[in-house]
Records
---
Amino acid sequence: MTKHRVSQINRRGMLGLLLGGAAQVGLVQSALAEGLVASPLPKPRPADLYRKSIPTAEALIEASKLSGQVSFAVADTATGEVYETHAPLLRLPPASVAKTVTSLYALEHLGAEYRFITRVLRSGPVVNGVVQGDLILVGGGDPTLDTDGLATLAGKLVAQGITGVSGRLLIDDTALPRIAQIDTEQTEYAGYNPTVSGLNLNYNRVHFEWKRQGEGYSLKMDARAERFAPDVQVARVKVAARNLPVFDHVAGQGRDEWTVAQSALGNGGARWLPVRLPGLYAAEVFQAVARAQGLRLPQGQRKSGAGEEVARIESAPLSVIVRDMLKYSTNLTAEVLGLTASRARGVAAGSLSASAAAMSDWARQRFGMRHIALVDHSGLGGASEVTAVDMVHMLGAAGVEATLAPLMKPVLLRDGQGNVVKNHPVSVHAKTGTLDFVSGLAGYVDAPGGQRMAFATFAADLPKRRAAKAAGVAERPQGARTFNTRAKKLQQALIERWAGVYG
């Protein structure tokens, strides 16, 4: 026994005498005798024992009570070693996880500094403030163009002293093919399923607002942004005395005609509706924001034209657009990026499916993704297929982590009550994907200690999804929310398992 140990016990014994006499001395003697034959310090718990206490992936999947199928793969980004898989070659819809492929496709073929340009041309000279000829608004496909952007463009014309046009206002939206809807299986009035065109304004959506007014309703449709919110006539809505469908659409002569079920309106509300005539929508809004600044323009016509450029605005760099697309999961942005990248490659893609097929071919050649088959660039189409192991191969490929990980949004981990856990030791940057009865997540996990892993996990109940589509169920089929909630809880449980076992 060391001198320090003896003196420590002597001090304890003296304290015992002072506090309680002989009884305390007995306790000290007992402790001393015990200290001679056993260490008072507990042995450290072996790391292997801790890892063995973590539930297996199969146990987590069973506990999730998810119907349908589950697939995942996880690998070390530094070595490429695949740590763990479950049905890794099962082909399932990626939903918006497909946007990770689109991001790399666009960045590689367009470049991180690429900018979309929206221009105004004039076909004749300006005399006394009036263009002697036509004014042509030429779209470059910019998916982020909004009403304020068109107002800035009009302001540049006014700054040059232009106050009118003797000819026509032409709208050139031919930079990209016009695609009526991203996915025909989605509800027609879903704002996330707009028309795609070479001239896209406000994500090709119009803002619909209603308020109860006596026995009826006041209805308003506008093209709102931060500074400007002009009313529009190219899209109109009327109240119909019915229960279903909630919205119905008829393409009128030069305008979108909507009806809404009165039983769904309540006391008031607002939502975005898709625009099916994006060229005419942009023309009307451009006319309105120009008029507000003193420039009078005639009604717009969809027709390409030639002339001298007099004004332009540019989008943010592509890297910023990609970051925002991954954060907000904007479907229009993904489709525009994919179509524009295919065009840059010289691919004659007149449809989303043709462009997506070209992107899938590129992914096979570029990353060895043998089982990828996408029908669009956003993941909105449920017919797209990918495997978890292919996604992990892509995420772990040379240069991809450095490109993609900084653009991905953080995925916050939650406790059993659904509250965000602050300062969680596990960090996740990934892309989510959600459709009815489909849930995916793919990206990067940083375990405690700094080890990074690439992962992909997909869950889908395709029979239930097909049944819901066949039944014509509207925006939220029964059981879909429960499925997706369980899938997200399973995703977090798997991530915490991987961080604990392999971190």
---
Amino acid sequence: MSAFPDAPFGPADRLDLDAVPLAVIRHKGIRIADLPAAFDASYSAIALTFAGDVLIPTGPALAIYHGDPMGVFDLEIGYPVQSPPEHPIPTASGSVIVASTLPEGPAVATTLLGSYEELGAAWAGLVERAAAEGLRPGGVWIEVYVSDPSTAPAELRTDLLMRTA
């Protein structure tokens, strides 16, 4: 099963993630309160790079959380791309776009159909369903923003993928 399916995931679908090339902006040691500024600055900077035909996106926007998302964590914000950048790409905002890959390995996934305000509950539900199947979080949490953010909140689709240990 792909990390980027056309149809939504079920309540707790198991899959093996493949390494997919990404172009991302990294944020080290941030907290949930820092997310709005990180998302706004990162997606704006990457969009300008796409507009300049430097990078070619091949899928929806995503965010990869490394560590404890309820504490201090590292974050990669970006897109799957046809070819990752060979060298860091400086942006006008002072951030740098770098190559990365979607973390490989076993994962469990679900889909949230609704507002971003419901992400916390959706993640908690996925962790609970995974635990019922004997799966533990592996420290990598991926949100794939399938819908354009201008979509009505009730119609947004966000796929949640949790690496398992």
